[in-house]
Design goal:
The structure is a single chain. The chain is of the alpha+beta class and 420 residues long. Helices cover 20% and strands 35% of the residues. It is built from nine helices and 23 strands. Strands 2-3-1-4-5-6 form a six-stranded mixed β-sheet, with helices on both faces. Strands 7-8-14-11-10-15 form a six-stranded antiparallel β-barrel. A hairpin with a 2-residue loop joins strand 18 and strand 19. The chain is globular.
Length: 420
């Protein structure tokens, strides 16, 4: 299959491995043009194959449209195409010479808030779309609240349909000022506003000639250059044990290092037991390594025979997680079944699963599907938790129905919150 535009040299394996990976999520209210924006981004970055574009052109022509409807590149489900809305999270993979991307195309409707939470939970960046004609609406507040709740490191406010307001700077600045007020209320660390027209391609991949008053980057330019992640050495080392492998009477502890670095010779602590030891060996991809860094999968060997099992957490350094049975968290309820005070649940935290009871719902009588709220749990066994704001992977957890194993609620630990 061939590209839809001028042929370009494909990226080599070496080039792809040298580029960094950005995970980002998109969200927009009804008719904000999110699907068109994503379609334009894929099309103009040469990430659409010829047969895909031909299919879009055929469907567009059958509807009497003069130009291809790029929204059809993303609304892949039949129900989405028929209703003109995005229903489920769809992951798109593309690359430029500067960076690789995983795009979580998430729904913006209130009844699909749980889908947005799923897509944005691992995102480094969220693109929140606003229609330049309508400005900040209720769903924009909700999207910003989800981004703040999930501590997404970067937020782009994409003010779309600038062509329909004559590319006027005053309309853009009014929306940015309005959004900034809500961002401050939510303690959103900051955002980058970009005026775009997804339909016309202004400031999506190429900078627009229609908005010479705007001196910032186009959307793709910003996505290619925004810093990703933090310095691995500065993050606390967190290694949830997934498997214990016995080989020649030696125990190897296997799993993924979810943050920080580990070195041979490091003194480590096993949680929740509190036992300590020293790393005497690290294997990465079957080879000895003196150093491992997140998010590598690896096996560790310790100097002493310790009682370590699946669900334990191995950490290094003085910056240890909190060992607690009283869990306070911000949550998004995902299930159709309501969550109530007194419910008995399972808490899945990294590789550990423990029983718990819901002690408080922040004053609410219950949480129903798509509700955002606060929760207090009492667990049967201690969990090695970080504040979600500090370490997202070890500050996140799921509540699971013990009867059928279905997922109920997504939680983000907030250990600094006052007790209920």
């Amino acid at each position: 299959m061939t590209s839809t535009t001028e042929p370009t040299e494909p990226l080599s394996v070496e080039q792809l491995s040298a580029t960094t990976l950005l995970r980002f999520a998109t969200a927009g209210s009804v008719d904000d043009g999110k699907s068109t924006l994503v379609g334009r981004l894929l099309h103009d970055s040469k990430s659409v194959l010829a047969d895909q574009l031909e299919a879009v052109e055929r469907v567009s022509a059958s509807r009497g449209q003069d130009a291809p409807d790029l929204a059809l590149l993303t609304d892949g489900l039949r129900a989405e195409r028929e209703q003109g809305i995005t229903i489920d999270v769809a992951y798109r993979y593309f690359a430029t010479p500067r960076r690789r991307f995983i795009l979580a195309d998430t729904p913006g409707h209130v009844q699909y808030t749980r889908n947005m939470v799923t897509g944005a939970s691992t995102a480094d960046l969220a693109v929140v779309l606003v229609d330049a004609r309508h400005g900040v609406v209720e769903q924009t507040h909700r999207h910003a609240a989800v981004a703040a709740l999930l501590r997404v490191p970067h937020v782009v406010l994409a003010v779309n349909k600038m062509d329909l307001v004559g590319y006027e700077q005053k309309d853009f600045e009014r929306i940015v000022e309005d959004f900034a007020g809500h961002a401050a209320e939510l303690d959103l660390p900051g955002f980058t506003p970009i005026p775009v027209s997804a339909l016309c391609g202004d400031n999506v991949v190429e900078r627009s000639a229609h908005m010479d008053w705007y001196e910032g980057p186009a959307l793709l330019e910003f996505l290619e250059t925004v810093p990703v992640g933090s310095e691995p050495a500065s993050a606390p080392a967190r290694f949830p044990v997934q498997y214990v492998i016995r080989h020649d009477e030696v125990r190897h502890y296997a799993g993924q290092l979810v943050s920080g670095t580990l070195r041979v010779g490091d003194r480590v602590t096993v949680h929740p037991s509190g036992e300590t030891s020293e790393i005497v060996g690290i294997d990465v991809l079957g080879r000895d390594a003196g150093l491992a860094y997140a998010p590598q999968s690896l096996t560790l060997r310790l100097a002493d025979q310790r009682d370590v099992s699946r669900g334990d957490m191995i950490t290094a350094g003085a910056d240890a997680p909190a060992l607690t049975q009283d869990v306070r968290a911000a949550v998004c309820h995902l299930a159709d079944r309501a969550l109530r005070v007194g419910d008995r649940v399972l808490v899945r935290h990294t590789t550990r699963t423990v029983k718990a009871i819901v002690k408080d719902l922040g004053g609410a009588g219950e949480l129903t599907a798509n509700d955002l709220g606060r929760i207090t749990l009492r667990t049967a066994e201690p969990l090695a938790l970080d504040d979600y704001a500090d370490v997202r992977r070890t500050g996140a957890f799921l509540l699971v129905d013990p009867a059928d194993g279905s997922t109920l609620t997504a939680g983000m630990a907030d250990l600094s919150a006052p007790h209920a």
